[in-house]
Amino acid sequence: MKILVFSDAHSDFDVIYNIIEKAKKEKVDFLVCAGDLTNFGSGLDFILKKLDIGIPLIIIPGNHETEEQIKKAEQKFSFIHSIHCKTYSTDSLVFFGYGGSTFTPFHTPYELKEKNFEKILKFKITSEKLIFIVHQPPYNTKLDLLDGHYGNIAIRKFIEKFKPLYCICGHFHETQGKRDKIGNTIIINPGYKGEIIEI
Fold it and tell me: 2-198: which CATH topology?
């Protein structure tokens, strides 16, 4: 299976166009967006119409879209699969996601207390082929390192507990394109350019 993962497009139509072109050229099976498709949720439906190219889109809210906005989009567009706090299964993979971020200086629409993220640890996910999609990166990795570590502790605990094949994240533009590992889990911030993973 070939998957194009990306994040943090922030309503940039050149970015959206490049993702579409890459998806078509690489003949991917799924698009996966790890949040912040927009700026403050603006123009979400318009962007999603552009992304309706006959390839399923698995998505979570970033801190710029709310849970409700993504839920309404899923109801409106049949090609969208929201995995915020739920799973989506294919013949060979299980996707599970949790969107939003902890608090930022920018007062974006979907910012949560760290304890809100603890609910992900109560899920019972037994798949050996799990892909974990989040917006904020896990704590204490190359992907959350700015002038210190600003990642999410609960997300790290989830990875240590459930051992997904991949964790796809975004949020920090400074670490786009970087990879790291927690145990055997490969963590990727694909950024707006996107990255192909094959499983």
Answer: Purple Acid Phosphatase; chain A, domain 2 (3.60.21)
